[in-house]
Amino acid sequence: xxxxCDGDEDAIMLLMDGLLNFSREILPANRGGQMDAPxxxxxRLNPTExxxxxxxxxxAWFYERxxxxxxxxxxxxxxxxxxxxxxxxxxxxxxxxxxxGYTHDCERMDEGPELSAYKTLATMxxxxxxxxxxxxxxxxxxxxxxxxxxxxxxxxxxLRGNLNAYGRQKIRCLKCGNSYRRMPLAGHCIQPEKVGGRxxxxxxxxxxxxxxxxxxxxxTVSEGAVRKYIEVTKHVMDTYGVDTYTRQNMEWLAGSVxxxxxxxxxxxxxxxxxx
Length: 275
Fold this sequence. Notes:
The protein is an all-alpha fold. Helices cover 35% and strands 3% of the residues.
């Protein structure tokens, strides 16, 4: 599930979870314990303050005839946006908070699939194959264009962001949790050790003559987090094809990752290399 859940059923369940099944006492004390916790509940929704992607939601009760006629020429979606009833067009009116429509009715909102294919498919390669295989069956969609779009809008920004985060990451002590911007020259945690006892020490104040923590240090961003989309991206490019610019951009980023984690000077050689 994503944080911005899709569907009325998910929204109601998360709301009830925040109202009936939540207490600060059950939050973990470790890192990330308060992430996604319903600490604040909004009672008034302002359509002008929601995510931009939600402004593109179609709120019409039916589609005009001109919409179906326009599809025969396959125009760009922006060219016929004026004929659609989007949330963005309702801002500033009473229709921004009421009267949202739908084109197909149902008896129960929970009668849909219990699990989406995105959750049942195990690996990202399986997910991409499922999406692009469907694109190949649809005449209105070019699978090569979809593959290029997914790589440019999802995989490449994620790879750039993780690569940047890896270069700027902090070093964290596994024992006391203290973080450093730079690796200490000692090679271990140099934070003064906190000693419990009477006086100020009972409140976590370190003794002036106390020793160091000496805990092991670990990176906060792993190598796997940077590499996670490289293989699936290469699979998509080789199987479905992408435009030249996207391929060259991906190959350049993949080369940057390899240069970062692999030592070009230290290479394991075998006897066959000298024959």
